[in-house]
Write a structure and sequence with these properties.
Length: 169
C-alpha cells in the first residue's frame, strides 16, 4: 500500500474493483483541494457516475447535481452540473497532466471549475497549463483503468464512496 503521508490531504475513492487513493496537492491548487475535501466530507460525491470515459484519455466524474445514481438520476444530464458552491478560479501550474493525475473539469471559461474532475489514463500534456492539476493517484490506478468507457457509458460506473483519509482512520 502506498504510504499516506498527509491524511488531511488524501482522498480515498471506493470503486467497484477497489480503493483508489489520491494524494492532493494543496500547495499547487489550494482552492480545488479544499472543494474536493468539502464535497467528500458532505458525502456529495457518493454514488456519482463516471459520465465521460474516453479510452486512452481520461475518466470524468463529479457532477454532484446530476450524476448521483441514487437520486433522480438522468444519464443525459450527468456532466452538465456542479455543486451549490461557486465556481473556482483557475489554479494552473507547471505540474504536467501525467497518467494518474487529477484535473479539474470545466467549460471553455478557465474559471468555471466546480465539482467535476477527471483522472488521466495516460500522459495528456496537451492539457498542461490549461486545466488545473490538483492531485494524483498513488494507489489503485489499476481500478481506474477498469472504469466502463463511453460518452456516456450505457451502464456507467460510479464512485461508491469518496472520503478524506483523515476521517476514515
Amino acid at each position: 500500500m502506498a504510504e499516506i503521508k498527509d491524511p488531511e490531504n488524501t482522498i480515498i475513492i471506493t470503486l467497484k474493483d477497489g480503493e483508489v487513493v489520491l494524494e492532493m496537492l494543496p500547495e499547487i491548487a489550494p482552492k480545488h483541494v479544499e472543494r474536493m475535501k468539502t464535497l467528500a466530507r458532505a458525502k456529495a460525491y457518493d454514488n456519482v457516475c463516471f459520465h465521460r470515459v474516453i479510452d486512452g484519455f481520461m475518466a470524468q466524474t463529479g457532477d454532484v447535481a446530476n450524476g448521483n445514481m441514487e437520486q433522480d438520476f438522468n444519464l443525459r444530464r450527468a456532466g452538465t452540473g456542479g455543486s451549490e458552491h461557486p465556481d473556482l478560479p483557475a489554479e494552473f501550474s507547471g505540474i504536467p497532466h501525467d497518467r494518474g493525475t487529477i484535473g479539474a473539469a470545466r467549460s471553455s471559461n478557465p474559471n468555471s471549475a466546480n465539482s467535476q474532475f477527471f483522472i488521466n489514463f495516460s500522459d495528456n500534456h496537451f492539457l498542461n497549463r490549461q486545466y488545473t492539476v490538483y492531485g494524483r493517484v498513488i494507489k489503485g490506478m489499476e481500478h481506474v483503468d477498469k472504469i466502463t468507457r463511453g460518452e456516456p457509458p450505457a451502464n456507467p460506473d460510479r464512485m461508491i464512496t469518496v472520503r478524506v483519509a483523515a476521517d476514515v482512520a
